[in-house]
């Protein structure tokens, strides 16, 4: 955990240094500003029957939607974003396709500038869930067939965080928000928390027969987007949360990095990396990495 935290904070600090070296701060006009991007990552491998080196044919795709709609009026700013990410992979020998990513996230943060500085009084809302069902896969001992057991679906789990704080905003590409009094709600389908063998907290921390869990804690969110090289852009987001009411030392971590290496206006090679730690879900880091050729469309 410490190594991944160190890497994430190193990237954020790099963004701070790079942002501070740019003496000319972006001048953003009053009113609404919108920007969006749709990206499709594709991976494929194929082997014929005579291939002796071993291997299994597979195909994978990952679709990402980013949409920002921001408002500014003098010393007041309101930043909103929608992120949707969904990926599937199908290996020739498997009976079912399997998800490689599934995320739907809404962010909104309002800020009131403090005495013509880069600091703002802020209030934020973050909502996060998934789009499709999730499964645990096992194998039938008698016939070897794959068995799918549903473990998650849309709005189960769903996370809602909200609270006041202080925001540092150097530009639209570098923002840090600290909220020391953050309310967090975890929502689940109570079908997953029912049954005589269910143990309190077993499903995303929710007690038996319940469909929600309330937490109160501190959160830190950071956004750092910058150009490493010409046509090589790194987007980073980091979210930390500590629950005052239960094991405050167990900090939930959600770090996401998208490295885009531009080929032309519509094509890019992309590397996605995400690390999540949430001991209510599993007491270990969840890691995913996707690399492939990206097809981009901006709007």
UniProtKB/TrEMBL annotation:
Keywords: Signal. Pfam families: DUF3078. Residues 1-19 form the signal peptide. This is DUF3078 domain-containing protein. It comes from Autumnicola tepida.
